[in-house]
Amino acid sequence: MASLRGKFLIASPALVDPNFARTVVLIAEHNDDGAMGLILNRPTEAVVAEAVEELAGVVEPGEAVFLGGPVQEQSVMVLAEFDDPVQAAALVIEDIGFLPADAQLEDLSGHTRRARVFAGHSGWGPGQLDAELDEGSWIVADPRTDEVFCEDPDELWSAALERKGGAYALLARMPADPSLN
Fold first, then answer.
1. Cα torsion 147, 152, 157, 162: sign
2. CA geometry: angle at 151 spanning 145 and 152, to 5°?
3. C-alpha count within 13 angstroms, C-beta hemisphere, residue 1
4. pLDDT in tens, 85-115
5. Which terminus of the chain faces fewer neighbouring Cβ atoms within 10 Å, N or C?
6. Cβ atoms within 10 A of the Cβ of 69, count?
7. Alpha-carbon distance 35 to 155, whole Å?
């Protein structure tokens, strides 16, 4: 299967894992060794300035820490939109990539347009994501920059499906618990 790096994975209603229900994951790496990504629509109640004080100046005041996934939830990753993509540790799409671990944080404010802090990440072993795709757990979509840093993460799942159109737009309007319909 071709690499899904830089793609969105939109959780299908068939995906029953509560870690990923109604999530949108940006795939940062996908190769023969597995895959890694970040859930984009799971803000936590923790505020960056309080939880990771040294990163307070990298994000907007009051910005929440997002749960990137169930793997290594104690680790922190910063996804940013760079003025100069060469400054990213690794690019995911266009000028969006990861902040280098050794970045001089005081210098970043003039080099990034926006950033988001994630606790943990999502990971799949060799062939695991491909198997989940084959069983219909995920819907693949091209990302839009404004969706990566969306202002209303609660609406991202529906918005990404709606944008795909057709039957996916119908899924976007499905209630979280279809039995309540």
1. negative
2. 115
3. 19
4. 888 889 999 999 998 877 766 666 667 889 9
5. C
6. 23
7. 25
